[in-house]
Amino acid sequence: MEIPPSIRVENLSRNYGTVAAIRNVSFEVKRGEIVGFLGPNGAGKSTTMRILSGLLPAHSGSARVAGLSVSEHPHELKKRIGYMLENNPLPNDMRVAEYLRFRAELKQVPARKVRQAVQDALEICDLARTARRKIIGTLSKGFRQRVGIADALLGKPEVILMDEPTIGLDPHQIQGIRKLIDSIRGRMTVILSSHILPEIERCCDRVIIINRGRVVASGTSADLRNEFLPESRMDITMQGDPKDLLAAIKRAGLSAEITASEELEGGIGKHCLQFEEATLAQSPELLKILSNENSFSLVSLAPRQPDMEEIFLAATKRSWEEPVEKSRLPAKAQPPSA
């Protein structure tokens, strides 16, 4: 029997006044998956997360999270999910363990299980020894984020929604949050919204990209590379004029353009070349041809894969070029929000 997804979203739409925040958003997240949820500011990420958490009603469409209809069982849903809000609002005057006990009670964790639930969350987030009794207002940004994640983990929910958990953190703190997320891989389903694209690529199984209120891309990093940036790219390090390099490539029957260049020491240059789609398979032959050239000296040749930032830019650029129908949802007198 096929296991149902932890999250199923179908044609979800939401307006703020006459502005459509999201339009017919649909996607699924399998149990145990960690999925990155990406989009420019105002794309509809936070609106979608709020709807999935039961904090905000949709105007049309449906969503099921942890086996429950979001619209029909919003209160029961809150017991089965953890949600870390953007900017992670926390009370400055409470101690960490005290706050987590308070939150566990609000989430209706059974009284006999509250102590263990708090302890488990503290240990997973590496707070048990370092910050258990500290006042939240005295904590660094990194530790405050850990407290927010510990809150989301209380009661071991099936689904965790994290809205910008690494915002404002330094590289060491970001690495710590990444390790924390890795530690729950496979045990919980996670949707992670972030603007730090390298971290999304490192820790997520799959990525969903939203822009202008609709899903514009979904898949693994490899899937999205093939869809949006299928051209072969290579980094070529050489000594000589890059025009001679392009001429040699043309004589080999290939077409390429230099998209970036960097001057190194000793008259050596490193150039990023973009080829036609099938060229990477021909790289051994290309290496042989370029190695025999007399007009320049080839130092190295290596395939280059687009990173998540390039994929994100390509996906959102394509969506900006596509027409979007105006939403016909009923207007609500609320301010615009993402």
Q: How would you sum up this structure, described in words?
A:
A hairpin with a 2-residue loop joins strand 9 and strand 10. Strands 6-7-8-3-9-10 form a 6-stranded mixed sheet, sandwiched between helices. It has a 4-stranded antiparallel sheet with strand order 2-1-4-5, covered by helices on one side. With 338 residues, it is an alpha/beta fold. The protein folds into 2 domains: 243 residues, P-loop containing nucleotide triphosphate hydrolases (Rossmann fold, 3-Layer(aba) Sandwich); 75 residues, ACT domain (Alpha-Beta Plaits). Helices cover 33% and strands 27% of the residues.
Proportion of helical residues = 25-40%
Class by alpha and beta content: alpha/beta
Q: Can you tell me the CATH topology of the largest domain? A: Rossmann fold
Summed up, the domain count is 2
Per DSSP, what share of the residues sits in E-state strands of 2 or more residues?
25-35%
Tally the beta strands: 14
Could you give a short account of the major beta sheet? Answer: 6 strands, mixed
CATH class of the largest domain, please? Alpha Beta
Order of helices and strands: EEEHEEHEHHHEHEHEEHEHEEHEH
Average pLDDT reading: 87
CATH architecture of the largest domain: 3-Layer(aba) Sandwich
